[in-house]
Design goal:
Elements (H helix, E strand, L loop, with lengths): L3 H15 L4 E6 L12 H5 L4 E7 L2 E6 L3 E6 L5 E5 L7 E3 L13 E7 L4 E5 L6 E6 L7 H4 L12 H8 L6 H6 L9 H10 L20 H19 L42 E5 L2 E5 L6
Antiparallel strand pairs: 1-7, 2-3, 3-4, 4-9, 5-6, 5-8, 7-8, 10-11
Helix pairs in contact: 1-7, 4-7, 6-7
């Protein structure tokens, strides 16, 4: 599943194409994806202008001129392709391939804009979904009401993490993967952030706070690490494991800078460290870490 940097890469690719344009036609080619499409989905989009394109956690949010918001989630294999009028063919935005090629049978939604550009949503596994919600109801919707702070926003601070972690018995890996605490963090970048912060994924989350609830130096290092690893990944266009492509169809390069993720059995890259990257399983997810560097 794409994580925050990959979704942000897709958002940045779609934004200049979509924002300010009016939707003139919508082809909905099946009744559902992961969930049923909203009632009168195509009719409610037609004629609306896209005011802005944002992101909350791993959701894309297209705000429309009638006060509704088109909520889009890529699921496991969703991707967007854009074909501008006279451009000679589509280009992928955040392409998620999964060895399925570009079989048009998996093109489930085609949106045509007033300048002739078409945006096609392609999803072989159909784990993605789209909703239409009133702007005023967005924050209270079950998908968003319980989400934690954005990891690149000002609300993520050592004091915030300490307040959430105080007295928690959960390990740091589980703590950071909890979307109610930090929204949008996924397995890859949690592993990398913990490495950069030199913190063991098995350390108790409570160690981020003092007995009085103040942030420890560990909390400070962790906030810095989360921000840096996400910014670096976005700058690299996301990560390509076996499925992801960035805006122009080329592979994202963040994976080439991984220090621990996917490197089981290889030497730690920290200068002077003689550790070997190990893999463990926590809550059904692979955790990669250096037992020497991360304490």
């Amino acid at each position: 599943m794409p994580e925050l940097p990959e979704v942000e890469t897709v958002r940045r690719g779609l934004e200049p194409v979509l924002v300010g344009r009016r939707i003139v036609r919508v082809e909905q080619r099946r009744p559902d994806l992961r969930f049923a499409f909203p009632e009168r989905f195509a009719a409610r989009l037609k004629g609306r202008t896209v005011i802005s394109l944002g992101r909350r956690a791993k959701y894309l949010l297209a705000r429309l001129s009638d006060g509704e918001v088109l909520v889009m989630h890529l699921g496991m294999s969703g991707r967007f392709t854009v074909a501008a009028l006279g451009s000679g063919g589509p280009r992928p935005l955040g392409e998620l391939v999964y060895d399925t090629g570009s079989d048009p049978a998996h093109n489930h939604v085609v949106i045509t804009l007033d300048d002739g550009t078409t945006i096609t949503y392609h999803d072989p596994r159909r784990f993605g979904y789209m909703l239409l919600l009133p702007e005023a109801a967005l924050d209270g919707h079950p998908l968003f009401a319980g989400l934690g702070v954005e990891p690149l926003g000002n609300a993520l601070s050592p004091a915030y993490l300490a307040a959430k972690a105080r007295g928690r018995r959960a390990d740091l890996k589980a703590f950071l993967m909890d979307q109610r605490i930090v929204a949008g963090l996924g397995n890859i970048y949690v592993c990398e952030a913990l490495y950069r912060a030199r913190l063991s994924p098995f350390r108790a989350a409570a160690s981020l706070a003092t007995a009085a609830g103040k942030p420890t130096r560990r909390a400070e290092r962790l906030v810095e690490a989360i921000r840096s690893v996400l910014r670096d990944a976005i700058a690299a266009g996301g990560s390509t494991l076996r499925d992801y492509r960035q805006v122009d169809g080329s592979r994202g390069s963040s994976q080439h800078a991984f220090f621990v993720y996917g490197r089981e059995g290889e030497p730690c890259l920290t200068p002077g460290c003689r550790g070997i990257v190990q893999r463990s399983v926590q809550a059904g997810r692979s955790t990669f870490y250096c037992p020497r560097c991360q304490r």
